[in-house]
Design brief:
InterPro entries: EF-hand-dom_pair, EF_hand_dom. One of its GO terms (molecular function) is calcium ion binding. The chain contains nine helices and four strands; from the N terminus they run ααβααβααβααβα. It is mainly alpha-helical. The longest helix is centred in the first third of the chain and has 23 residues. The radius of gyration is 36 Å and the shape is globular.
Length: 234
Amino acid sequence: MSEVPTTPEKQKGEDSLPSAQPVAAEHRPSSGRPSSANAEGGIRKSVATLDPQSQARADMMAELEKKVVEAFEIFDHAANKTVDVREVGTILRSLGCVPTEAEIQEIIVSVEDQESPGSVHLDRFLGHVVNIISEYKMQPASAEELLKAFQTLDLEGTGYITKDMMAVLMKEGSEPFTDEELEEMMGAAVEPGTDNINYELYINQIMGVRNELGSIYEMIPKPKKKKIEYKKLI
């Protein structure tokens, strides 16, 4: 009778050992180095913080806001961060803006306090006006633009235009000058004893006043050339 082969006896406790399990990611030892995603995020943050152009723009916007607040506070007679809506145009012009009456009305509609009609709160005014100025809206014409406009009217190249021609131009358009505005302008522009306007001298007068008062647009880079309106000649 042949013997039945038997399998070797298993080592004691062999079949009771648990199978090896992968170590969960959260329990694995750290290599001590940041992940590539974290490292990249940190680099970007550092670059953004140190970017000279970004920092320069942030500084410019902060200074722009400061100038607008200072102009607003001059007309905030009650010191409660509000002004009368009738002061909006004056505040804009004090900053060096050249708004039309239609533009002033558009701003008033946008910033007027609905709970207190007839007044404008600084919070609404500040953001709206900063956006307008930073987009170069309501910017006065440069000396070069003014000269070109006058030369277009001076067909004979004499360096002068007549008082009557100027009056006609200022009385036309969608926003004609009032008689008072026209009289004030002519008093500064017309040469004494004549009916002529030496427009180069007049432009120099305008630039002199602007330089004395200052302009908020000097704080920001110059925009591309734009088409000007005769209404903005002064």
